[in-house]
Amino acid sequence: MATKTARQPGSQKHQRISRILKTLDKKTKPFQAFWAKFNNDWSWNNAAGLAFNLILSIFPLVIALLALIGFFLGRLDPAAYQDLTTRQLPHLFPEITSSQKIIQPALKQLTKDSGILGIFAIVVAIFNGSRLFLFLQGCFDLIYHVRHAVSSLKMCCRWLWSCSLSSSSPSWCWLRLFRP
Fold it and tell me: How many C-beta atoms lie closer than 10 Å to residue 117's C-beta?
């Protein structure tokens, strides 16, 4: 009499599930690698920093637009200025702000301060634009695994800046010079 070894149905099911999981793991390897690189490159933090820097870079454009409006209003002849303030502007703004008590002083102040606003807009645009591009450079250095080399001129400027802000001994400045 031949004896048959009874196969356990649970072991076949376990082997089939194991094969499915291995196949699934092989198929999702590229996605897992992408997700690991995405998280290791601080992509969420870089996206938030980029959005913040973009908003700060757009802010001077609004100031420059106000300065241009002030320049144009200052160049209008009195009849065109009066027509603009009495007929055109009340249609653009809600009734509460279209009062002549509010619009006239605001427009006079805008035409008076448009030069200062323009200069301020240019300075802030240069500063915020440079910060935006420095942030982008840092993001690309991180993504492409590039170690940012510090030039000797930049190192000397860093040292001078540290010395000017430092109230401690000069030896601290020398230590700052040789810090990587």
Answer: 19
Q: Has residue 11 been placed in a domain?
A: no
Instruction: Say if 36 falls within a structural domain.
Output: no
Is the domain of 47 the same as that of 71?
A: yes
53-93 tens-digit pLDDT: 999 889 999 999 999 999 998 888 888 888 887 777 777 77
- Can you say how many angstroms the Cα of residue 103 is from the centroid of all Cα atoms in its chain? 34
Per-residue confidence (pLDDT) for residue 65, from 0 to 100:
93
Pairs from 88-95 (Cβ < 8 Å, separation ≥ 24): none
Q: In angstroms, rounded to a whole number, what is the distance separating the alpha carbons of residues 83 and 92?
A: 14
Quote the domain boundaries for residue 132.
43-146
With a cut of 80, say whether residue 12 has pLDDT above it: yes
SS3 assignment, position 150 = coil
The closest of 29, 125, 23, 116 to 67, measured between CA atoms, is 116
- Look up tokens 């149905």; give the residue: 9
Residues 61 and 113 in one domain: yes
* Cα(19)–Cα(57) distance, integer angstroms: 54
- Tell me the pLDDT tens digit for each residue of 97-122: 557 777 788 888 988 988 999 999 99
